[in-house]
Amino acid sequence: MKKQAYIFDAKTLVRQQHSAVLSTHSQSVEGYPFGSIVPYFMTPEGDLIIYISQIAQHTRNIKGNHKVSMTVFDNLADDSQASGRVTLLGDAHLIEDESLKAQYFSLFKQAEAYQQTHDFMFYKIIQKRVRYIGGFGKIHWINQEDWQLDVSNWQQASKGIVEHMNKDHQEAMQLILAHQFNIEAQQVSMLSAFCEGVHLQGDNNIYYWPFDNTCLTSTQVREQLVKATHDARAGLISVAS
Length: 241
Prior knowledge:
By secondary structure, this protein is of the alpha+beta class.
């Protein structure tokens, strides 16, 4: 399996899931790891963003030692040993970034209420190395330089893609959801656009739809969305006939 293919598969798994096991260094029981479940999303570059309370045990642990890991897996899989999982090792740092904040709240709307309680703050986990297991015999270490993408201009492009789709292409998103997820959604919106895929909301549920390959420009994303719309329309016509 070529390197770029398994990196794409690993990132797809990370983007499809919305919570993971955060492992920190225990400050109260020295020398032992401490695991907890936290929501997250991954930036276009490949870092993870978490929103955690300052009174939580894992936050206290991070303040004592910022080296952490996040383990992502498909919790609906029948056989956890045969399904994919990703462990991301990195350094957790407190951040203030309005664009990342807005992106997080678009995916986790209930978290906006946490701003008034328990001193929740954003942390970025900057990746150092990634372990991907795609099933039996599919085991890969991924170095930081291969995992991280240089997407310095992506933020503006992503914003434009999302705004354009929500303004002008409601039907296209409904078709994609129907074809890819068998969902007949009345209310649809695009929440995010990444190099590897997009988050779509259908009614009250959020779905991640991966592209066929990594896109580094808005033109490439448009080509993927146009193709997906055409495929969806053709597929649905075929089923109906």
